[in-house]
Amino acid sequence: xxxxxxxxxxxxxxxxxxxxxxxxxxxxxxxxxxxxxxxxxxxxxxxxxxxxxxxxxxxxxxxxxxxxxxxxxxxxxxxxxx
Length: 82
What we know:
mainly alpha, extended, 82 residues, single chain
């Protein structure tokens, strides 16, 4: 069964899949961030903060995969320190 997210029927390349994973994880990070900052939810605040952090780490590790396969790091994420 094919996801509704796909716009064409061809198989994605590995790097495209990693970019797709990063985009989807980033969307979830935004959602979890909203829950984390919602003052109506006080129970489990620490755990939600950990969920948020681990999702950030997941996005970072997918980025490391892209680095490993030779995808350049976008300029806005490059370290400016010299």
